[in-house]
Amino acid sequence: MKNILVIGAAGQIGSELVPYLRKIYGDNHVVATYNRTPLLENVMEGGPSENMDATNGDVLLEVVKKYNIDAIYNLVAVLSARGEANPTLSWQINMDTTFNCLEVMKDIKGAVFTPSSIGAFGPGTPMDNTPQDTVMRPTTIYGISKVAGELLADYYYLKYGVDARGVRYPGIISNVTMPGGGTTDYAVEIYYEAIKNKKYTSNLSAGTFLDMMYMPDALDAAVQIMEADPAKLKHRNCFNISAMSFDPEKIAAAIKKHMPEFELDYNVDPIKQAIADSWPNYMDDSAAREEWGWNPKYDLDKMTADMLEKVAAKLK
Question: Which CATH number belongs to the domain containing residue 88 in this structure?
């Protein structure tokens, strides 16, 4: 990759992926784009940026030509819980952006990274050790768009040679940006509330296990999959990747190791709970490990220690 375009650079992943990519490929070779949400100051000042609506294919093509882009990281998405409040808008943003990225890179024969999600699975999927290839019948518009995006990316690779790749992210936990309307948001919020109030009210019930990942591992995965030897990739869109699985009780126990007075109670959100209940407890990521060497660095305890330290410093 020579010149990279990051769409959705103001989001949870994009805000940290842009600086990460710039350290690897050079500041001027990574273009950050945003639309309604402004970029973080370090992202805006650290290299080129564009205010752009990626659902407009003509505008996207202009930016790709302007910067001679040969790889796109497409991070635009209306997440699960927020998507259920406006399914039409969610489908339009999620699918139009994915289609435009693939279509623009068709003639260039460039690369596109579009992450999928545990949200692509549904109630008929095996919940434990969820296989790489299995039943995918999601019950949210977010999940439906992710499955469609996986299939569309495969189609553009097979028919047009677009180097489309991706991973199925679990819930992502970050100390830089707050989450944006996902079902796994509690796993970020709980650390902030632990520092501020020493207590947290979870909107998911005890025993609700979900795959999770700390942001440093999520960033590594985004680069590793795009740099992987294509000859070794049997799967492209998308690889299961996992780092840890926990429920609210387990994350609270990890916090109590550092903060014994921390308290957890519950006020379950029925919409988020129904979504979470349809997702896997933990995924089998052996294909990613075998085909491109996936190996996360953070478990729950290591992540918790780092999150509490970073969030406490941030809230001072």
Answer: 3.40.50.720
Residue 197: domain span: 173-211+245-282+298-310
Give the amino acid at 82: R
Q: How many domains does the structure of the chain reveal?
A: 2
**What is the per-residue pLDDT across 215-239, written as a single tens digit (0 to 9) for each?**
999 999 999 999 999 999 999 889 9
Task: Tell me whether strands 210-214 and 171-173 are parallel, antiparallel or unpaired.
Answer: parallel
192 is catalytic: no
Using alpha carbons, list the distances in angstroms from residue 199 to 38, 153, 195: 31, 43, 8
- pTM, rounded to two decimals: 0.94
Q: Which of 73, 142, 156, 282 is catalytic?
A: 142
Percent of the chain with pLDDT over 90: 90
Neighbouring C-beta atoms of residue 199, cutoff 10 Å: 14
- Asked if 79 and 180 touch (Cβ cutoff 8 Å), the reply is yes
